[in-house]
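Appendix C reproduces, verbatim, an entry submitted by the partner laboratory led by Prof. M.T., so that reviewers can inspect both the input and the predicted structure.
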Amino acid sequence: MKRFWKKNPLLFILIALGIIILATAAVLLLVYIVMSLWNGVLVSVLSVKTITFWQAFGILVLSKILFGGFGKGCRCHRRHFGWNEKMKEKWEKMSPEEREEFKQQWRHKCRSWKGFGETAEKNAE
């Protein structure tokens, strides 16, 4: 099956440009909202100075670095999309002996990863 961008590369370029433009507009809007909220709320409540657009951008980048927000879970779901269905198919094709061996392997992996409590004592023996 051919991909659509191989059939029509111009369409692919237009879609890519549209995504870039929308992402840029979303970031600019978010920075404007941060600046407006800071200047509208914090100036009157905490008596801090007003900030510029670029200072708001810096605050947004700093908060991303410190707190790691902005839809982290969304990327995770996209990356592992379909994993559950693939695992169910694999599980159904296994014999009972293979299933038990698989369970034992994962129990061992999880116990060695935790490294504390009862599992650490069992690993020490």
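The CA atoms of residues 62 and 68 lie 9 Å apart. Additional entries are available on request from the coordinating office.
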